[in-house]
Structures are given as structure tokens and as C-alpha cells.
Amino acid sequence: MIALAAGIIGISFSPIFVSLSEIGPTATAVYRMALALPALALWMGLERRAEPAPRRLTRRDWLILALSGLMFTGDLVAWHTAILTTGVANATFLGNLAPLVVTLGAWLLFHERITLGFLLGLAVALGGAGLLMGANAFTGSGDLLGDALGVITALFYGAYLLTIKQLRGGLPTGQVMLLSSAFSCIGLLAASLVLGEGLLPATLFGWGMLVGIALLSQAGGQSLIAFAMRHLPASLASATMLANPVIAALLAWVILGQALQPLQGLGCAVVLGGIALTQRLGHRAR
């Protein structure tokens, strides 16, 4: 739980880094992966000292690692673009509907039974998301395309968490994160070139934002969450991660001046309440 909490704080800074970056959102994600690789390689090396003979990777492991990298590529491309079009709070709250995806995926993949309480929580959470998006029409903030990208982000990130949960059943954190991030880096670089985004920031401040998102959010935040995923149920971990948008929204308010409007705040509260219901009254392991 301590690792999960620290990881959530780390990834909560990522939308701030994206907003302040001097290059495009996808190019920023490329550096997020690339600059994190040396730190992740060090992490893997330290783990191998403690466990000199790790299990050999199978073809299935490589396929799931590649899939996790692909899912995180889609997540970051959609989310980083949403941040710049609909704002930090909206993009982060919509993107953090991923616990719904994780719970449904756990039902399909791990044969967990979903109760009527879960369906009630799902309906409440979706209603809150609709209220949050509807608030944009009244306040003039947000963007329809950005909101849609936020929902797509949730689908990709939920799938990514499920693959990480599967991999962490038999592989160490450093190895999983290093190889998954390497696959993501390749996919993000290709996406950045297709989108025609520049890859070089203009100032040292711009480079600082890239180093910050790589070390604090990726090598630190995402890796600590991956570490926690082995020791905690996927549903509990994903539900706890709903603290991420709350912290991100507060950081955006303090650092970027993006205050929440009343209707947006109400929508956020309803989303959180719905997710809480899914965890309180929801599924039980078979």
C-alpha cells in the first residue's frame, strides 16, 4: 500500500509535466519512456543481485510484454492529447475510469463474479462521467474530442494494468517495466514521427520537464504501481488509483490555475462515489 500510494503521487505529476512541456504530447511521451530506461535497467540489475537466477522469458511472456507496451502507447497518445484539448482535470478524471475496465477484464480473464452492486456502481460512475462532460457545455471549458480521448485513455490504461498484473505473477518489477517501456518507446516514436511533432525542446526548462516525467512519473510512479500489483488485488489497486485525478486536479489548480467549476466538481464526486460502490458492493472472487 505504501508503494501504491507513492506511485499514485508520482504519476499525478505527469499531466503537469505534459502541460508545461515545450514539445508535442506524443514526443513528450517518447522521452518519458526513453529517459526512464537507464533507471529501470538499474532497478532490474539490483533485483537480479537479490535473485541471481530469474525465470527465463517464454514466448508468451514476450507477447504479453509487447501487448503491455502497445496498450501504454495508446494510453499515452490519447491521454497526453486530451490534456492539451480538454484540460488536466477532465482528461485525468475520464482517463481514470480505467478501474471499470480492470474490473470487467478481471471478470472475463480471471473469472471473478460481478454482482448487482457492481452494476449499480457502474451506472452511477457513468452518470458522473456524463455530468462531467455535460458541465463543459455550460462552462465553456473542455472539448468533445478531448473528452472522447479521455475515455479511450481509460480503455487502454485498463488493458495495460491487466497485462501488468498478469506479468507480475512471475516476473520481477524491473524486468517487466524495462521491457514494457522499451516496447512503448518504439511505438511512441513511430506515432510522434507520423504526427510530425518536433523532438527537441528549446530551453533547459523544457529538458527538465522531460527528465521529471521520465524519472518521477514513469521510472518512479508506474514502477511502484507495478510492484504493488503483485501484492494487491487488481480491483483494490485500481480503485485506490482514483486518488490520482484528485491529486492531479489539485496540482493543476495550484500550478496551472485550472480551477474546477461547480458542475465539474459535482461530476467528479459522483464518479468517485460510483467507483466506491463497485468496490464496496461489487464483485467477489470465485
Characteristic terms for this protein:
mainly alpha; single chain; 0% strand; 286 residues; globular
Overview of the molecule:
This protein is mainly α and about 290 residues long. It has one domain (about 1-280). About 80% of the residues lie in helices and about 0% in strands. Helix 8 packs antiparallel against helix 14. It is globular and about 50 Å long.
Would you spell out the secondary-structure blueprint of this structure?
Elements: H1 2-12, H2 14-20, H3 25-34, H4 37-50, H5 59-86, H6 88-95, H7 98-110, H8 116-139, H9 144-167, H10 173-195, H11 204-231, H12 234-240, H13 243-256, H14 262-281
Helix pairs in contact: 1-11, 1-13, 2-11, 3-5, 3-10, 3-11, 4-10, 5-6, 5-9, 5-10, 6-9, 6-13, 7-9, 7-12, 8-14, 10-11
Measured by DSSP, the beta-strand proportion falls in under 5%
Indicate how many domains the architecture comprises. Answer: 1
The major sheet is characterized as:
none
Approximately how much helix is present in the residues? Answer: over 70%
Unreliable runs, pLDDT <50, ≥5 residues? none
| Alpha-beta classification | mainly alpha
Per DSSP E runs of 2 or more residues, the count of β-strands stands at 0
The N- and C-terminal alpha carbons lie at a distance of 24 Å
- What is the typical, i.e. mean, pLDDT? 82
Order of helices and strands: HHHHHHHHHHHHHH
Shape label: globular
Provide the gyration radius in Å. 18 Å
- The tally of helices reads 14
